[in-house]
Amino acid sequence: MTHEETLTRYTANFIDELHRNGLTDVVISPGSRSTPLALTFAEHAFINHWVNMDERSAAFFALGMAKQQNKPVAVVCTSGTAAANYFPAIVEAYYSRVPLVVLTADRPHELRDVGAPQAIEQINMYGQYVKWFHEMALPESTPPMLQYARSKAARAVQTACFGNAGPVHLNFPFREPLLPDFSLENLWEKQEYPSFHQVLEGKDVLEPSQLEWIINKLSSHEKGLIVVGPQFDTELAEAVSALANQWNIPVLADPLSQLRAGQHDKANIIEGYDAILKSKQIRDRLNPDFIIRFGAMPVSKPYLLFIKEHSEIEHFIVEAHHGYREPAGTPAQFIFADPVKLCSDFCEAAGHLAFNEEWLQSWRLMNQTAKRQLLAEQESTFLTEGHTVKQLAEAATEESTIYVGNSMPIRDMDTFFMTTPKQIRILGNRGANGIDGMTSSALGAAAHGEKVALLLGDLSFFHDFNGLMLAKQYNMNLTVVLINNNGGGIFSFLPQAGQSDHFETIFGTPMDIDFQHIIAMYQGRYSKPESWEELRQALTDSYQEDGLSVIEVQTEREENASWHKAKWTIIEQKLMEYFEG
Questions:
Q1: 388 and 418 inside one domain
Q2: Which InterPro entries match (predicted)?
Q3: Interior CA angle at 36 toward 49 and 110, to 5°?
Q4: Are 398 and 422 spatial neighbours (Cβ–Cβ below 8 Å)?
Q5: Is residue 565 assigned to a domain?
Q6: Is the pLDDT of residue 33 over 70?
Q7: pLDDT tier for residue 117 given thresholds of 50, 70 and 90
């Protein structure tokens, strides 16, 4: 058997097995050493291949697609620093629990550590940030080695998806020549089985005695909170709402919790909790007996301070699989069980529990007060970052997605995105909270035709200009709401703002970029509204048109910080009047 036939059959068996295990998309960055993988993926009839020349953008694009589809996505690159450019997205995927199958091509063993070009150490190069690493054997086409290739492909997808999802890495050493031969007969071997390794994964549930133990502890309390942080499970909203209604308990819902939008009952949803907890005076007056948290730690820093200041609260953290996401450092009890099933079990086994009605009504009143002040229009007509979120929420269409950038945009989303019956999915990269790769991630979410809006700041947009090439290349539907405060707006809220001597140079970092020219380069539509009416029209138009639309909202950092602080001051005053009332 020739080298070309061996290479082709080995690679084809591996890639076909990825498909049999549910992989339907791969993002390829061109390169020579990865030729066998790239061409074989392109040849496979049931796998969509996307080409992205920038490996950093490619990995974030795959990340966004995997989040939106809730399925694993593969990425393919050549050897050398190409693989290193995947690292930021792999870190994000690891911490945000997103399944990626990372396939890096490599020089064969005889060309490593001898000064050969484009050869770096790729063994375990992503360290602890992948769930599994495997160095693939050199291609062979004997029946045992073709079974080996299928075995590793099946394991890669299953490992990426099962338990806490995350990235896996397989490294492929290839010898030249690198061109596969697709004229071979029976290349895609017909297999009778759907997967080389079939896996049945059950859901973790509590034993009756464990459930009874928790219920007995809760029954001695009067005031509780359910908190739902960033998470992807679309079924959790209904389950949590049913539990909260039965127990008469408020639900603090993070913007990435998937609880603020949809048709489920939102009577007990408290979306204004970040603004409520901004004031230490208010935090000191709120003393829940227990908290049950689902999902990751919420975005809200005031909530984190609240937890740290009240370490006496009995804290239950629910994880579908093993994990320790508790940055507050306070005593906590972990419940490793399927969250939706746990809510159902609580409703069934603890239907008699009904917590303090006054406590719930107090939170509802505080929430109404905060929302009223947050959404109140002010006399000035200047555009504000917070109310831009309000306009975006109103313009967003059914079954659409809003992807949110880090730093100020996600915090404004937390503060100003209120409950809505519309089915809107809110996504963000809150695993490592970086500002890189946001445009590429949002385009990945839009890859299969979904209407996606991206809310982000100017520095984050600058970080990922290369990602816009995908919008042009594939004519994707993406609305970018670009908050341009000419620099790092979040630092205006931090102690660094008092360092006037070096603040602008080190933290403010103004760029003074005319973004219109960049958008034109990628053949997108650009608008820069000067009023609320113009902004509403631009948003409406963007949802009715195909392709890339960039809406630049020009704001001023100091003015924005003052506007936010004025809102928080009024809310604090109103809430103190209620408490002292």
A1: yes
A2: DHS-like_NAD/FAD-binding_dom, MenaQ_synth_MenD, MenD_middle, THDP-binding, Thiamin_PyroP_enz_TPP-bd_dom, TPP_enzyme_TPP-bd
A3: 140
A4: yes
A5: no
A6: yes
A7: confident
Of 152, 173, 194, the one marking the end of a domain is 173
Q: What tokens appear for 577 in the block?
A: 């009047």
- On whether both 108 and 59 belong to a single domain, the answer is yes
Question: CB–CB of 458/527 below 8 Å?
Answer: no
Query: What's the mean pLDDT when you consider all of the chain?
Result: 93
CATH number at 232 reads 3.40.50.1220
Note whether residue 132 is domain-resident. yes
Largest Cα–Cα distance of the chain, in whole Å? 88
Task: Note the pLDDT of residue 495.
Answer: 65
Domain check: are 62 and 139 in the same one?
Answer: yes
Domain count, the chain: 3
User: Are 271 and 146 contained in the same domain?
Assistant: no
**The two structure tokens encoding residue 500:** 């006037």
Q: Residue 125 belongs to what domain range?
A: 3-173
298: Cβ contacts below 8 Å, ≥ 6 apart? 227, 229, 230, 252, 254, 257, 304, 414
Residues 57 and 97 in one domain: yes
* Whether 407 contacts 488, CB under 8 Å: yes
Which among 256, 257, 277, 245 is positioned nearest to 370, based on CA atoms? 277
Same domain flag for 356 and 401: no
Residues 365 and 408 in one domain: no
- For residues 428 and 404, is the Cβ–Cβ distance under 8 A? yes
Query: Does the structure show a pLDDT above 70 at 133?
Result: yes
Q: What string of DSSP letters covers 175-211?
A: PSP----TT-TT-S---SSS-SS----PPP---HHHH
Q: What are phi and psi of 69, to 5 degrees?
A: -85, -15
What's the order of all strands across the beta sheet hosting 25-28?
Answer: 48-51, 25-28, 73-77, 100-106, 167-173, 132-135
Please report, for the domain that includes residue 140, its CATH number.
3.40.50.970
In this structure, which amino acid lies at residue 118? Q
Amino acid at 464: D
Based on the domain organization, do 284 and 312 belong to the same domain?
yes
Tokens, residue 503: 């603040």
Task: Give the type of residue at 301.
Answer: K
Any domain includes 562: no
CA distance 7 to 248: 63
H/E/C letters for each residue in 107-160? CCHHHCCCCCCCCCCCCCCCHHHCCEEEECCCCCCCHHHHHHHHHHHHHHHHHH
Domain end point (choices 344, 372, 400): 372
pLDDT of 489 > 90? The answer is no
Strands 424-428 and 400-404: parallel
Among 18, 27, 94, 93, which residue's Cα sits nearest to residue 61? 27
* Residue 335 identity: I
Does 405 score more than 80 pLDDT? yes
Task: Please indicate, yes or no, if residue 312 is contained in any of the structural domains.
Answer: yes
